[in-house]
Amino acid sequence: MSIPRKKNVTAKDIANACGISQATVSYVINNKEGKKISDATRQLVLETARQLNYVPNSTARSMRTSRSMSIGIVSGRNNLSLGFSHVLRGVKEYLDSVGYSITLLNDDSGDIDQHEYVRYYRSSRIDGILFLFYEMEDSTMKMLEEEHIPFFLADESGVWHSAEQHHTLLEDGILQAVELCRQKQLQRIRFFSLQHGEALFSKKWNLFSSALAKGYPEAELKRFIFQTADIPVPELRDNFYNALCSEEFDVAITPNPRIGWLVQSAILQKQFSIPMPVRHICIAASSMFQLVYPTITSLDMPLEEMGRYAARQLVRVLSGLSIEEHSFSCSLKEGISTL
Predict the structure, then answer these.
(1) What is the longest distance spanned by two Cα atoms in the chain?
(2) Which end of the chain is less crowded, N or C, counting CB atoms within 10 A of the terminal residue's CB?
């Protein structure tokens, strides 16, 4: 018994349903720039395509455009980050709308030249790369530029595609955190850091300590550093608890949601009271704090919008178009502990 082949919806079917030309449908579906198409017509085409369950034929487009019609997504070790998931949602939403697929990749090789994403690009299995919440080293950035690999990076610092980035969203959030400490007279400040092996570099520590020295020089800043090698989560939380009990201070600063959750758990273990005995500011974007630990003050960033923007700009670059300038805003969302 032969299974009947499913009939695919085509651009012609959409054109007939809308009462417009097939060329107009093609312009909208393929997101062609420079074509004078009204917003009403564009929305009609997209809505009709959705209702008819239209799926672009990526194989045909790949043959027609000499592209793979796939974008590589690299997240390093941060693919479980809530920030990553929000940015990825925006990326996928845009790429789906223009007929691109996503290929998830990693960089598990010590040799930059042998990274999976480099091999995929050289073999034409992807057209470009989006690095999401990826800690990119200068050597990697240099290699990408020398290889002429189209890429964008999106994380809490913003969205960019080269080393020429001077001001970031993260800096805005950190300046607001410093100002909040000054306004609330939270003078004894402790920054919690994790050390992975020999690596101790922390961009957030560098930015925060520098901003504090300029904006709140009378504050007393100390850094707590904890080793993570072969340490289970309960023991790490106990180490945070011991640090909290070792001395009195006003506010804990944590650099990411993982440390933020564990430190907040240790704070509640030490003393559960209102007002909180220790204020807590996590200089990271995480809407989950509002559900799990509304006590934590954190950053509010338009992560999905940033993902859509990064994906759109990469597609524009692949089409030989210029990058659209856009600015994003970051604000400090106060939790109960600092109100």
Answers:
(1) 82
(2) N
Total number of residues shown for the chain:
339
Helix axes 82-97, 303-318, angle to 10 degrees: 40
The Cα-based distances of 9 to 13, 31, 32, 40, 339 in angstroms read 6, 18, 20, 22, 55
Q: What is the pLDDT of residues 126-166, one digit of tens each?
A: 999 999 988 777 788 888 888 889 999 998 888 988 766 65
| CA distances to 56, 123, 160 from 199, in Å | 45, 33, 25
E strand or H helix that includes residue 31: none
Give the closest residue to 285 by CA, choosing from 273, 269, 296, 272.
Answer: 296
Phi and psi torsions of 253, nearest 5°? -110, 125
Under 8 Å between Cβ of 280 and 295:
yes
Dist. CA 130–CA 328, nearest whole Å: 18
DSSP 245-257: HHS--SEEEESSH
Asked if residues 73 and 103 have their Cβ atoms less than 8 Å apart, the reply is yes
Helix pair 11-18, 39-51: axis angle to 10 deg:
120
Triad 52, 58, 64: Cα angle to 5°: 120
Q: Write out the two tokens for 26.
A: 């093609």
Residue type, 201: F
Distance CA 163, CA 319 (A): 22
